[in-house]
Amino acid sequence: xxxxxxxxxWADFGKATAMILGVAFSTLLMAQQAAIFVCLMANSASHIxxxxxxxxxxxxxxxxxxxxxxxxxxxLVDRVRSVDGVAYAAPFLRRGAIVDTSAVIEQAILVGxxxxxxxGAPQKMLYGDMTSxxxxxxxxxxxxxxxxxxxxxxxxxxxxLEVDGRVLKLVGVADPxxxxxxxxxxxxxxxxxxxxxxxxxxxxxVARVKDPAAAPAIAAAIxxxxxxxxxxxxxxxxxTIDYYLENTGIxxxxxxxxxxxxxxxxxxxxxxxxxFVTENLRHLALFRAMGxxxxxxxxxxLVQCALVAxxxxxxxxxxxxxxxxxxxxxxxxxxxxxxxxxxxxxxxxVVFAVxxxxxxxxxRRAIRLDPAIVLRG
Amino acid sequence: MSAAIDCRYLEMEFGAAGGRQTVLRxxxxxxxxxxxxxxxxxxxxxxSTLLSILGGLLTPTGGDALVFGKSLAGxxxxxxxxxxxxxxxxxFQQYNLVPALTAVENAATPLIIGGARRAVxxxxxxxxxxxxxxxxxxGKFPRQLSGGxxxxxxxARALVHAPRLIICDEPTAALDxxxxxxxxxxxxxxxxxxxxxxxxxTHDTRIFDYAGHLIELEDGLVIRNEIISxxxxxxxxxxARRKRDKAAPAPGRRAAA
Lengths: 377, 257
Description:
The structure holds two protein chains of two kinds. By secondary structure, chain A is of the alpha+beta class. Chain A has helices at residues 2-11, 13-44, 46-50, 76-81, 143-149, 190-193, 215-226, 233-247, 250-279, 281-289, 294-330, 341-368; strands at 56-59, 86-100, 105-113, 125-128, 138-142, 160-163, 166-174, 185-189, 204-209, 229-232. A six-stranded mixed beta barrel of chain A has the order 2-3-8-5-7-6. In chain A, helix 2 crosses helix 11 (294-330) and helix 2 (13-44) runs antiparallel to helix 12. Chain A starts with a helix and ends in a 9-residue tail after the last helix. Chain B has one domain (3-249): P-loop containing nucleotide triphosphate hydrolases (Rossmann fold, 3-Layer(aba) Sandwich). In chain B, the strands form two sheets. Chain B has a seven-stranded mixed β-sheet. In chain B, strands 2-1-4-5 form a four-stranded antiparallel β-sheet, covered by helices on one side. The longest helix of chain B has 15 residues, at 177-191. Chain B has six helices and eleven strands. Helix content of chain B is 28%, strand content 26%. The A-B interface holds A 1, 3-4, 7-8, 10-12, 282-283, 286-293, 296, 370-372, 374-377 and B 48, 51-52, 55, 57-58, 78, 81-86, 88, 90, 92-94, 96, 98-101, 105, 109-110, 112-114, 118, 169.
C-alpha cells in the first residue's frame, strides 16, 4: 500500500513540491530564528561562561545581572579571600567607556582585570599576549571592536587610542565570545583603569575556588560572610539569561517570528495535503472498495506525509545550516552563532507533528468514505 | 453449473425514518458460476444497489445474498472488506484506473492491497495483461492508453487476485461498439470458467447477446429472470447474430427457477 501512496504522491509533482517547500520554509524560519534566539540569550552570559578561570562571581545585592554591575568596596576582596575554600579572589571592573580616535567617538565596554592574576580576562588571543596588560597605559581590544573602532584597517599592534580621556597603547587583540551588547570590549588592568576618568571601583569580585565542585556551597558561604550576592558561574550565567528573558521583549519577538513560521508552514502543509487527499478521494474509495481497511490507508497517508516532512525538513535544515555556516564568518553581529542540536531536534519534532496531524485530518474523510461511491459514477 | 449467487428476499432502504426510500423490494434469484449474468433495467431500478450488495460494498437492510455460500447480510465491516479483497473483482464504467500508476501497477493493485509483495504482484499483473493482449502497454499510464485498452487493464485488475465473483458496472458504456464487443468477448471467456461468476449491470442493449442469464429489474423488483441456452449465447462474432427480443423470450430459452 505504501508503494501505491508514494506513486500517487510523486505523480502530483506540483502539490508534492508545494508541500515540501512549505515544510522547508517553515523549518528554515523556525530553526534559524530559534537558533538566533538561543545564541543571543547564551551571549548575554558569554563573558561569565567563557571565563573558565572564575568559579564565583560576587555582586552587589542590587545587581540583577552581568550588564547591571554595582560598585563594590575595595576591601570586599579581602573578606572574600578569607572564606574557606576560596583559592584566590580579585576585583573585576565592567562599565561603559568612551573611545576616541581622530575619526570616530564610540561607546565601548571597559573591562578591568586584576593585573597580577588576570582573573576574568579572555582566554583566547588573536594577536599579542594578555600579560602585556601589566604594562601601564595599555589595552587589549576584541576583534569585532577593532573593526568598529578602525573599520577596514589591518590590525596594527602598538597603535594608540584615547579611552575615557587617556591615551592607551594597543598590545593585543582578543577573540572572546560575542557579548550581548555589541560594543567594542576594551580590556585594561585595574591599575590602568584607575587612571581613567570614570568609575574605578570593582563591579564584581571574581574568585577561584580550591574545589570547583564545591563552588555553589562556597558561594553560599561567601554570601553569608560578606552580605553580598555570590553565585557560582553557572548560576550567575543563568541569572543573567533569566533577566533578559523576563525583562526584555526579545523572547516575545522571537516567539512571534517562530510562531509565524510555524503557522505559515503548517497552513501550507495542511491545506495542500488536505487538497491532495480530497483530490484523491476517489482513488482512496477505490482502494476501500477493493478491500483496503482503514489502517493500511492511514499508514499509506502517514508515509506520504512523513516523506514530504522528511524532505522538506532536510531542505529547510540545510538552508539554516548554510546560514550558520557562512553568515557568522562574514557578519560580525552573528559571530559565534550556531545551530544548536536542541533546536534541530525540537524543530524536527514540530515539523513531523504538523505533517502527521495534516495527514490524519486529511485521511479522516477517506476513512469515513462510503466505498460504494465508486459505483455511483 | 453450481449456484454461485443466491439472493433471498433481498431488500435495501436508504435514508432516515420519515424520508426512507426503498430501492430493492425483495429480490429473489439464483445465478450460476460459468455463466455470464446480466442485470438490466431502467435508471433508478436498483441495479447498482444490487451490484453494490453483491460486491460487499453495501449491507442489505432485509433478506440475504449468498455468494459462493457466504452470507453477505451477516458480515461485519471487516469481514466485508476481506470478502471484497479475496472474492470480488470490480470492473467499472469509467475504468477507475489510478492515473498515477502504470497499467501494470494498476493491475497489481488488488494483490498489493491484499498484502502481496510488490514484485510478486507486479509479476502476476504482467501475466494478466499479457493474457489480455496488453504486454506491450504494461509500462504506460492510463492517459497513454485508449478507452478499450484502459478497460482491459481494468479487467486484468479484476482478475489478478483470482476472485470467484467478477462484478462489472456498465463495462461497455464508455466504449464504441467495436471496442465494446472486444471487451465483451474477453468477459465472456472469463465467465465461461465454471469456478467463477460474472455479473454485469448494463443499459447497453448491444451486449445482451452475450448474456447467459438475463435479469431485468424495475422499481426494485425482478420482472424478468431468464436463463439463456448455451447455443444462443453470443460467440465472438455477435454482430452476425440476431438481436434478441427483450419482450418475448425466444424459442429454446427457459425461465429461471
